[in-house]
Predict the 3D structure of the following.
Amino acid sequence: QVQLVESGGGSVQAGGSLRLSCAASGYTFSRVCMGWFRQAPGKEREGVANIGGDGMASYVDSVKGRFTISKDNAKNTLYLQMNSLKPDDTAKYYCAPCGARMGFPYWGQGTQVTVSS
Protein backbone atom coordinates (compact mmCIF):
# COMPACT_ATOMS: atom_id res chain seq x y z
CA GLN A 1 0.00 0.00 0.00
CA VAL A 2 1.55 3.28 -1.13
CA GLN A 3 1.07 6.24 1.16
CA LEU A 4 2.87 9.59 1.20
CA VAL A 5 2.35 12.00 4.09
CA GLU A 6 4.00 15.40 3.97
CA SER A 7 4.47 17.69 6.97
CA GLY A 8 6.52 20.61 8.23
CA GLY A 9 5.14 23.48 6.21
CA GLY A 10 4.25 26.84 7.67
CA SER A 11 4.40 30.59 7.28
CA VAL A 12 7.75 32.34 7.45
CA GLN A 13 9.25 35.64 6.46
CA ALA A 14 11.65 35.92 3.55
CA GLY A 15 15.07 34.68 4.55
CA GLY A 16 13.65 32.14 6.96
CA SER A 17 13.95 28.36 6.99
CA LEU A 18 11.68 25.34 7.10
CA ARG A 19 12.26 21.60 7.09
CA LEU A 20 9.72 19.44 5.33
CA SER A 21 9.27 15.73 5.97
CA CYS A 22 7.61 13.01 3.94
CA ALA A 23 6.75 9.70 5.55
CA ALA A 24 6.40 7.08 2.85
CA SER A 25 5.17 3.54 2.75
CA GLY A 26 5.17 1.16 -0.15
CA TYR A 27 8.64 2.12 -1.35
CA THR A 28 12.14 0.93 -0.52
CA PHE A 29 14.07 4.19 -0.34
CA SER A 30 17.42 2.58 -0.98
CA ARG A 31 16.18 1.43 -4.37
CA VAL A 32 14.05 4.27 -5.70
CA CYS A 33 14.54 7.88 -6.66
CA MET A 34 12.28 10.19 -4.66
CA GLY A 35 11.57 13.84 -5.18
CA TRP A 36 9.96 16.96 -3.84
CA PHE A 37 7.49 18.82 -5.99
CA ARG A 38 5.62 22.08 -5.49
CA GLN A 39 2.57 23.76 -6.92
CA ALA A 40 1.76 27.43 -6.57
CA PRO A 41 -1.76 28.77 -7.23
CA GLY A 42 -2.43 28.98 -10.94
CA LYS A 43 0.81 27.21 -11.84
CA GLU A 44 1.72 23.70 -12.85
CA ARG A 45 3.27 21.32 -10.37
CA GLU A 46 7.06 21.32 -10.73
CA GLY A 47 9.82 19.13 -9.40
CA VAL A 48 12.33 20.95 -7.23
CA ALA A 49 14.68 18.27 -5.90
CA ASN A 50 15.42 14.59 -6.41
CA ILE A 51 17.49 12.06 -4.51
CA GLY A 52 18.43 8.72 -6.00
CA GLY A 53 18.54 5.38 -4.29
CA ASP A 54 22.29 5.91 -4.06
CA GLY A 55 21.87 9.28 -2.38
CA MET A 56 22.80 11.45 -5.34
CA ALA A 57 20.81 14.68 -5.27
CA SER A 58 19.79 17.12 -7.97
CA TYR A 59 17.93 20.42 -7.84
CA VAL A 60 16.09 22.81 -10.09
CA ASP A 61 18.13 25.97 -10.65
CA SER A 62 15.79 28.19 -8.65
CA VAL A 63 16.52 26.35 -5.39
CA LYS A 64 20.16 25.38 -5.83
CA GLY A 65 22.26 26.48 -2.89
CA ARG A 66 19.19 27.08 -0.72
CA PHE A 67 17.40 23.72 -0.50
CA THR A 68 18.86 20.38 0.57
CA ILE A 69 17.11 17.07 0.00
CA SER A 70 17.97 14.11 2.21
CA LYS A 71 16.46 10.84 3.33
CA ASP A 72 16.51 8.23 6.04
CA ASN A 73 16.31 4.85 4.35
CA ALA A 74 15.60 3.03 7.60
CA LYS A 75 12.61 5.26 8.33
CA ASN A 76 11.50 5.62 4.70
CA THR A 77 11.38 9.33 5.31
CA LEU A 78 12.31 12.09 2.89
CA TYR A 79 13.35 15.57 3.98
CA LEU A 80 13.70 18.98 2.40
CA GLN A 81 15.67 21.61 4.27
CA MET A 82 14.74 25.00 2.87
CA ASN A 83 16.88 28.00 3.73
CA SER A 84 16.89 31.61 2.54
CA LEU A 85 13.26 31.26 1.58
CA LYS A 86 11.79 33.70 -0.92
CA PRO A 87 8.17 34.71 -1.60
CA ASP A 88 8.45 32.81 -4.92
CA ASP A 89 8.87 29.61 -2.89
CA THR A 90 5.28 29.93 -1.69
CA ALA A 91 3.48 26.77 -2.79
CA LYS A 92 2.09 23.49 -1.59
CA TYR A 93 4.89 20.93 -1.44
CA TYR A 94 4.53 17.24 -2.22
CA CYS A 95 6.78 14.19 -2.31
CA ALA A 96 6.58 11.42 -4.88
CA PRO A 97 8.83 9.16 -6.93
CA CYS A 98 11.06 11.09 -9.30
CA GLY A 99 9.31 12.09 -12.48
CA ALA A 100 5.81 11.59 -11.10
CA ARG A 101 3.17 13.37 -13.16
CA MET A 102 -0.26 14.65 -12.24
CA GLY A 103 -1.73 11.24 -13.08
CA PHE A 104 0.33 9.57 -10.35
CA PRO A 105 -2.37 7.99 -8.21
CA TYR A 106 -0.75 8.34 -4.79
CA TRP A 107 -0.15 12.06 -4.30
CA GLY A 108 -0.42 13.01 -0.65
CA GLN A 109 -2.23 16.01 0.75
CA GLY A 110 0.89 18.17 0.54
CA THR A 111 2.15 20.72 3.03
CA GLN A 112 1.70 24.46 2.54
CA VAL A 113 4.69 26.79 2.59
CA THR A 114 3.98 30.51 2.67
CA VAL A 115 6.80 33.04 2.53
CA SER A 116 6.02 36.68 3.14
CA SER A 117 8.19 39.61 2.11
The beta strands are 3-7, 10-13, 18-25, 34-39, 46-51, 57-59, 67-72, 77-82, 91-97, 111-116.
